[in-house]
Amino acid sequence: MSFTKIAPMPFSPVRSMLFVPADSERKLAKGEASGADALILDLEDSVAPSRTQVAREMALDYLRQRNSDKRGRQQLWVRINPLSTPGALQDLSVIVAGAPDCVMLPKVKSAADVIQLTHYLDALEAREGVALGSIRIIPVATETAQSLFTLGTYEGCSARLCAMTWGAEDIAAELGASTNRRPDGEYDSVYEMARTLCLAGAVAAGVQPIDTIWSNFGDEEGLQRDAVTGRQRGFTGKMAIHPNQVATINAAFTPSEEEQAWSRKVVELFASHPEMGTIGLEGKMLDMPHLKQAQRVLALVKRFAS
Predict the structure, then answer these.
(1) pLDDT of 230-273, one tens digit each?
(2) Average pLDDT, the chain
(3) Residue 10 lies in a domain
(4) Domain containing residue 99
(5) Who has the most CB within 10 Å: 21, 143, 291, 293?
(6) Same domain, yes or no: 187 and 299
(7) Distance between CA 265 and CA 100 in Å, rounded?
(8) From CA 223, how far away is CA 219, in angstroms rounded?
(9) For residue 119, what is the domain's CATH number?
């Protein structure tokens, strides 16, 4: 695939993204109060086909009620139906008028799907009088067999691309697997590969890498362990399927007091010695990657400060 590479626009990172069926007023209200950094108004898997049009209209009403002036720090995203179905354009033709912060695109095959969605959004924003380029895109980048071979294709594909995430359920179904986990509960090798390639693909594209859901919403210990593991690997946020998961995810992806203190020391030390590319601190040798990581930590602290 060949295209002119486009740098992604600046984007405020998110720690927690909560899926909410767009056709449930009760769950929308719970989501708003959950503390999630973003709500994902779902028009796909959590909505019965007979309720899809109702969900579209409710999503639009909700987006309009919470316009950009009223959203504050909580972003509003919409997960549409796959581009391979007629539902995708039907979803977009309704919800773009509400100016969601982001569209989540499921079951992608490659960056070509992001480019196609970009063209749709260009046209629909113009039609609806929405600020051009304001609606971002996040693909769920591992849900088809083809996608596992294309996770390195997203760099420069669209200025709207703001993040990438992955999923283990749909790809397992497509591969004909009876489960995506080993007997010890850990992901089997193909799903760990998908997770790793999504992380690398997002970093290569210069966008936020977001980890997938923890499906057992009653298992807080498992969620906490999975979230910490994801952050240690390099993910900077995680999706949630229940409001009770949000606080655990936010805590896991918020730098600790110890991390903050260390990062301040690193930044201050390099600032006071601008001529040095390598410097010692408390018995450790530090260089530019350590400074960049410290700056990243402090930027996250600033972003999520109450």
Answers:
(1) 999 999 999 999 999 999 999 999 987 787 777 787 788 888 88
(2) 92
(3) no
(4) 16-252
(5) 143
(6) no
(7) 39
(8) 6
(9) 3.20.20.60
Are 279 and 148 within one domain?
A: no
Model pTM score: 0.88
Average pLDDT over residues 102-115: 98
pLDDT exceeds 70 at position 156:
yes
Q: How many domains does the chain have?
A: 2
Answer yes or no: do 168 and 274 share one domain.
Answer: no
Q: What is the 3-state secondary structure (H, E, C) of 229-270?
A: HHHHHCCCEEEECCHHHHHHHHHHCCCCHHHHHHHHHHHHHH
Residue 1 clears pLDDT 60, i.e. is over it: no
Q: Which two tokens stand for residue 60?
A: 């639009």
At 291 the pLDDT is 80
Quick check: is 9 in a domain? no
- Based on the fold, state whether residues 275 and 149 are members of the same structural domain: no
- pLDDT for 306: 53
Q: How far apart are CA 23 and CA 278, in angstroms?
A: 55
User: Is residue 2 domain-resident?
Assistant: no
Q: Which two tokens stand for residue 11?
A: 């984007």
**From CA 304, how far away is CA 242, in angstroms rounded?**
21
Distance, CA of 297 to CA of 30 (rounded, Å): 30
pLDDT for the residue numbered 252 = 95
Containing 126, the helix (H) or strand (E) segment is: helix 111-128
- Same domain for 232 and 281? no
Q: If you count DSSP H runs as helices and E runs as strands, how many of each does the chain have, helices first?
A: 11, 10
Confidence at 3, pLDDT banded by 50, 70, 90:
low
Could you give the CA distance from residue 194 to residue 171 in angstroms, rounded to a whole number?
Answer: 9
Amino acid at 223: L
Tokens, residue 94: 């309704």
Whether residue 267 sits in one domain with residue 119? no
191 lies in the same domain as 265 = no
Beta pairing partners, 306: none
Nearest alpha-carbon partner for 92 in 131, 118, 74: 118
